[in-house]
TrEMBL record:
The keyword Signal does not apply. The lineage of its organism: Bacteria, Pseudomonadati, Campylobacterota, Epsilonproteobacteria, Campylobacterales. This is EAL domain-containing protein. It comes from Sulfurimonas sediminis. Residues 24-271 form the EAL domain. GO terms for molecular function: catalytic activity. Keywords: Membrane, Transmembrane, Transmembrane helix.
C-alpha cells in the first residue's frame, strides 16, 4: 500500500519535472523564432516632470506579440531570457528599437529610458552597440537613459564604475531602477555614477496608508538629493500619490495615473 503510494509520488514528480523542461525548451525555441520574426514590440510609458506636469520622457517596455498566446508581458519571458543568455539578442533589438522610437519623438521628448539587463551591460561590446545605434539613427546620446537594477552591484565595483564613466563620457545617462528592492548598499550607491534614481513601485503603492512605506519614500528621496541624483517615482496611480511625491521633492513620476505603457501610435496621442 505505502510502496504503491511512493511510486505514484515519484512518477508524478517525474512528469512535473519533464513538463517544466518541455515548457522551457518550448519557450527557448519560441524566443529564438520571436527574435528572427520580429514578434517583439516596445511600448512606451510617459514620464512626467513634477514641477511642470508635462510629459518629458518615456520608458520603453518590451512586449511580445506571441503568434498564439497574444500579447505577453516581460514577466512571462524576461527572466528566462536572462538565464539563458537569449537576453543578449533580445536586448540588442531593444536598444536598436529604442533609438528608432526616440527618433520619432525627439521633437517632443527630452529623452527615452531603456531597460538594460546585467548580462547586456557586462558584454564587451555594449558601449560600441550604443554608439553604432546613435550613429545609425542620428540620435544624441544625451537623449538616452539606461536603466540598470541593483544587480550590477554583483559585478566588480571598479570595473562597473569604469564602464559607466566611459559610456557617460559620450553623453548617455544612467538610472538606478527599482531602488530599494535588491542588493542596494548605500556605500556602493555613493560611488556609482548614476544620474537618476527610480523609487520602486512597491513603496509608492502603499505609501499613503503604510507609515513605514511613507518614511521609506521620504528617505529615498532624501538620499537621492544628498547624492545629487534626480528622483523618479514609479507606480503613481492616483492624484494623491502624485501630490505626496511632489510635496516631498520628487522630480519625476510615471504610473497608471498618466497612462499605462502603450504602443507608439497611442503614445503620440498622449502628448
Ligand atoms: P521596470 O523597469 O521597473 O518597469 C516598470 C513596470 O511597472 C512596468 O511593467 C510597468 O508597466 C509597470 N507599471 C508602470 N506604472 C505602473 C502603475 O502605476 N501601477 C502598476 N501596478 N504597475 C505599473 P512591465 O512593462 O510588465 O515590465 C516589468 C519589468 O520587466 C520591468 O520593470 C523591467 O525590469 C523588465 N523589462 C521590461 N522591458 C524590458 C526590456 O526591454 N529589457 C529588459 N532587460 N527588461 C525589461
Ligand atoms: Mg525600468
Ligand atoms: Mg522599475
Ligand atoms: Mg520593476
Amino acid at each position: 500500500e505505502s510502496k504503491k503510494g511512493g511510486k505514484n509520488k515519484t512518477s508524478f514528480y517525474d512528469s512535473t519535472m519533464s513538463r517544466q523542461i518541455q515548457e522551457q525548451l518550448l519557450l527557448h525555441n519560441e524566443l529564438k523564432i520571436a527574435i528572427q520574426e520580429k514578434q517583439f514590440e516596445l511600448y512606451l510609458q510617459p514620464i512626467v516632470e513634477t514641477k511642470t506636469n508635462k510629459i518629458v520622457s518615456a520608458e520603453a517596455l518590451i512586449r511580445w506579440n506571441h503568434p498564439t498566446k497574444g500579447l505577453l508581458f516581460p514577466d512571462a519571458f524576461i527572466e528566462y531570457a536572462e538565464q539563458s543568455s537569449l537576453i543578449i539578442n533580445i536586448g540588442s533589438w531593444v536598444i536598436e528599437s529604442a533609438f528608432a522610437l526616440y527618433k520619432e519623438l525627439e521633437d517632443t521628448l527630452e529623452n527615452i529610458a531603456v531597460n538594460i539587463s546585467l548580462k547586456q551591460f557586462s558584454q564587451d561590446n555594449f558601449e560600441e552597440l550604443l554608439l553604432t545605434n546613435a550613429k545609425k539613427y542620428n540620435v544624441d546620446p544625451h537623449s538616452i537613459k539606461l536603466e540598470l537594477t541593483e544587480s550590477i552591484m554583483l559585478n566588480n565595483l571598479n570595473d562597473t564604475i569604469d564602464k559607466m564613466l566611459h559610456i557617460k563620457a559620450h553623453g548617455f545617462a544612467f538610472s538606478m531602477d527599482d531602488f530599494g528592492t535588491g542588493y542596494s548598499s548605500l556605500s556602493y550607491l555613493k560611488n556609482l555614477p548614476f544620474d537618476y534614481l527610480k523609487i520602486d513601485q512597491s513603496f509608492v503603492r502603499d505609501m499613503l496608508e503604510n507609515e513605514n512605506d511613507k518614511k521609506l519614500v521620504k528617505i529615498i528621496i532624501d538620499v537621492a538629493k544628498q547624492f545629487d541624483f534626480s528622483v523618479i517615482a514609479e507606480g503613481v496611480e492616483t492624484v494623491e500619490h502624485a501630490h505626496f511625491i511632489e510635496e516631498n521633492g520628487c522630480d519625476y513620476y510615471q504610473g497608471y495615473l498618466i497612462s499605462k505603457p502603450v504602443p507608439l501610435k497611442e503614445f503620440k496621442k498622449l502628448l
